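Morning. Coffee machine broken again, so started the prediction first thing and wrote up yesterday's gels while waiting. Chain of 229 residues, entered below exactly as on the submission form.
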Amino acid sequence: MPTMNDNKTVFASRSSQRQRKQAVRRLLQEHNPDAVVKWAAEERNPMRVLSSVLFDPDPLIRWRSIEALGYIAGAESVENMEGVRSQIRKFLWSMNDESGGVCWNGPEAIGEILHNVPSLLDEYGAILPSFFVEEPFERGSLWAVGRVAAQRPDIFAGAIDDVVGSFKDPDPVIRGYSIMALTALAQRDALEKARLLFDDAAVLSIYDFELGELRETSVGDLARAALGS
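Came back before lunch.
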């Protein structure tokens, strides 16, 4: 039976976790990567804290957390590759109904980690296309493939037809991310089919890693840019 001291310890631990989360959230609001790196060096489990921010209601904060997870994982991999593997496995588990707390942005987080730690692509890259038809991970898995495919296009060769098929999806985000994925795969022949989307005016938001901001574009704009038209 838990004692009063046990309850105080649990409460103190939860309070500490909230404070750590709030601290890094403020840094993400400021979009200060150098400060986040410094924070991570002093934090005993920075990827765990950043992972909790993926549930933030603000989409910009979520994207900045995804970005930070990538470069923190890159730094961590130098001395603790197994720790990075463990974090990827945690995301995969959180994308399972049995986890009790589905992480909708799990694929994006995995993709950004692999982008920064490409030596793990052979182990985990091929898993991403398996989520193309798994709600609610269709968007994120396509984005993740687009993020890493240029580094190892061979890993995703078997997924090209599925990506092209997504051009017909009713969700404009999926259509846009499909164009981005094929562009990264350098699949010019398959990408030619994106000409059918030149007049697609549906709008989507894309995270700009250079600016650290979300910017709006259209499916048609992405298609024309991909084909240089």
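The two ends are 69 Å apart (CA to CA). Going to sketch it on the whiteboard this afternoon.
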